[in-house]
Amino acid sequence: MDRLTGGKGFELVYDTNGGAVLDASFQAVARFRHVVSALGWGSHALAPLLTGVDRAHHGEILAQVTTLVEAGKLLPRLDPRAYTLDGVAEAHAGITDHSAKGKIVVSIA
């Protein structure tokens, strides 16, 4: 992180893994900036987010993330291999043997 941000931390960290990666995201983000997670399960408690407290503020954060996505500045990292349901065992192997370089897509149509 220091090498990439000059020690300041990232403006926004988007986590798609949860767990230890989400916990590390909070270490990588700049002070008073944002971490967004698709899963939200780490060693910390996110229950206050479920209460509706500061709902408008969280909505503003998600609106900012939407702007980044729509501008093409926040893109998912996808494994270049293409899978169908017939190849789901190979797709799973890419996860378990850690050869997947990003998220795996399995086409079902």
SSE inventory with pairings:
Layout: H1 2-5, E1 10-15, H2 19-28, E2 29-37, H3 55-70, E3 83-84, H4 88-96, E4 106-107
Parallel strand pairs: 1-2, 3-4
| Overall CATH architecture of the largest domain | 3-Layer(aba) Sandwich
At the fourth CATH level, what is the homologous superfamily of the largest domain?
A: NAD(P)-binding Rossmann-like Domain
What number is the mean pLDDT? 87
Tell me the count of domains: 2
Report Rg.
17 Å
Instruction: Report the sheet with the most strands, covering strand number, pairing sense and barrel closure.
Output: 2 strands, parallel
Strand order of the largest sheet: 1-2
CATH topology of the largest domain: Rossmann fold
- Helix and strand string, N-terminal first? HEHEHEHE
Report on the structure:
With 109 residues, this protein is α/β, with parallel strands linked by helices. It folds into 2 domains: 2-70, NAD(P)-binding Rossmann-like Domain (Rossmann fold), CATH 3.40.50.720; 76-109, no CATH class. It is 36% helix and 17% strand. The protein has 4 helices and 4 strands. The protein has a two-stranded parallel ribbon with strand order 1-2. A two-stranded parallel ribbon has the order 3-4. The longest helix is centred in the middle third of the chain and has 16 residues, at 55-70. It is globular. It starts with a helix and ends with a strand.
